[in-house]
Amino acid sequence: MTTNADGPTNATAETSTVMTTEYDQKASMSDQESITNFTVPAVAEETVAPLSDRSETVFALEDVSVFYSAFKAVREVNIGVRANEITAFIGPSGCGKSTVLRCLNRMNDLIPGARVEGRINFYGTDLYGSDVSATEVRRHIGMVFQKPNPFPKSIYDNVAFGPRVNGVKKKDELDHLVEKSLKGAALWDEVKDRLKTSALGMSGGQQQRLCIARAIAVEPSVILMDEPCSALDPIATARIEDLMKEIKSRFTIVIVTHNMQQAARVSDRTAFFTTEINPASDRRTGVLVEYAPTKQIFSHPSDIRTEQYVTGRFG
Ligand SMILES: Nc1ncnc2c1ncn2[C@@H]1O[C@H](COP(=O)(O)OP(=O)(O)OP(=O)(O)O)[C@@H](O)[C@H]1O
Ligand SMILES: [Mg+2]
Question: Would you say the pTM of this structure is higher than 0.85?
Answer without folding.
Answer: no
